[in-house]
Each structure stands twice: as structure tokens, then as C-alpha cells.
Target: Superoxide dismutase
Amino acid sequence: MTGPVPVAADLVQRAAGVIAARHRGDLAGAETLLASFDSEPARTLGFYLLADLALGLVRAHTGESLDDLVRQLTLLVADTPPAP
Model:
């Protein structure tokens, strides 16, 4: 893949794949996908773009403002118990 758009799409697809693999219990697959990123900045960009797209989809579906969605997300994260 060349150029910024195909590269960004690839990063987002891999980030989504990591989440999907974890969700279905395929931890080895998630780890393999995480390791497939060329660098930490690429991984960060992939997950940032995925989060931005996901929040945009929720905003479009609910009609809520992005600020309200981020506020709700922040409260959910604050209520999440720490990992064992």
C-alpha cells in the first residue's frame, strides 16, 4: 500500500482486527496483529483513527455532540474496575 489514505486504512483495519480478535477470545491473533504494526507511532495512529471513526459513527447514529459522547466515555472509563 502506498500513499496516506491506503496506509491509514490499513492501520485502521489492523487496529479493528486487534479489537475483534480480543473480543472473540483470540488473544494470540490480537497479539500477532499488534506486532504487525511497523512502529509505535503507526499503532497509535491506527487506534486514534479507529476511535475517531467509531465516535463519528456513534455521533451520527445518536445525534449527540462529540463533547457529550466523550464526557460519557470518560465517566464509563472512570467507573471501570481495575484489571486483576
